[in-house]
């Protein structure tokens, strides 16, 4: 793989791919402001770190996950959006377009990238590049940690956009093997532990969520922040909120009052008699 290549001579068939809805919006804004020829962004926010991945192209298999995501994040893409984007991907592959894939160590990014490599292996006529974005970013007062790649600002994107790695056919096949193993395991959840995607139960984060809830009312936003700090990072906000709802349903924690908005809601542990 060739690192640090500058895509100054990229052809018009080149397009960006991201597995994060927010980053897709930032990339679209970048292209609009730069008025360049590479203004198409393919958003494959498939959430492949969660749920059944045995048949990704069978959108009915994935619909329940996408519905759960939209329950907690109404701005998330719909199932119809995903079907449309998958169609655009097929067209890009058939047309031999060159792809620039934005990834981080977030489970959703890595799982999406592994799936994409499996799809491209032996079936890619155009060039493939990756932009690897760290969840640690420099600020004037030091280093801060993003929760997901979608937290990246436009200025940070500009600094990253030419920091690319060329991906060859051998690498695509090697990564396809990683994806094949994850599909065979087909666990409810996939997380990044020490740089490796592993298959775990959907209750994996519950221990971190419960430890972040007190006997007295605690802001839901604070619970999420503490959970992110305590456990492996990179999971989207909607996933933490869905697990909090599960713990409420299991009568381990409870909401305080009627407020459910993440900014104002409070939760506390259920008192055991």
Automatic annotation (TrEMBL):
Q: Which residues form the DUF3658 domain?
A: 168-263
Pfam families linked to this entry: DUF1835 (PF08874), DUF3658 (PF12395)
DUF1835 domain location, by residue? 16-132
Q: Which domain of life is it from?
A: Bacteria
Q: Which InterPro entries match?
A: DUF1835, DUF3658
Protein name (record): DUF1835 domain-containing protein
**Species this protein is from:** Levilactobacillus bambusae
């Amino acid at each position: 793989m060739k690192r640090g290549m500058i895509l100054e001579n990229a052809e018009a068939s080149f397009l960006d791919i991201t597995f994060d809805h927010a980053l897709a919006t930032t990339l679209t804004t970048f292209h609009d402001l730069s008025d360049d020829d590479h203004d198409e962004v393919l958003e494959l926010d498939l959430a492949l770190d969660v749920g059944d991945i045995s048949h990704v192209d069978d959108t009915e298999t994935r619909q329940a996950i996408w519905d759960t995501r939209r329950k907690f994040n109404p701005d998330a893409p719909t199932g119809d959006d995903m079907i449309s984007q998958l169609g655009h991907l097929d067209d890009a592959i058939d047309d031999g377009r060159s792809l620039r894939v934005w990834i981080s160590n977030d489970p959703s990014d890595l799982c999406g990238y592994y799936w994409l490599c499996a799809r491209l292996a032996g079936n890619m006529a155009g060039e493939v590049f990756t932009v690897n974005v760290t969840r640690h970013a420099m600020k004037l007062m030091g280093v801060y940690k993003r929760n997901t790649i979608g937290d990246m600002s436009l200025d940070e994107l500009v600094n990253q956009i030419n920091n690319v790695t060329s991906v060859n056919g051998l690498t695509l096949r090697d990564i396809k093997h990683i994806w094949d193993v994850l599909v065979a395991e087909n666990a409810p959840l996939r997380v990044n532990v020490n740089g490796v995607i592993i298959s775990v139960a959907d209750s994996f984060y519950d221990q971190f969520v419960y430890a972040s809830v007190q006997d007295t009312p605690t802001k839901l936003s604070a619970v999420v922040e503490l959970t992110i700090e305590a456990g492996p990072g990179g999971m989207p906000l909607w996933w933490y909120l869905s697990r909090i709802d599960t713990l409420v349903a299991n009568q381990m924690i409870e909401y305080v009052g009627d407020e459910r908005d993440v900014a104002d809601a409070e939760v506390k542990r259920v008192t055991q008699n």
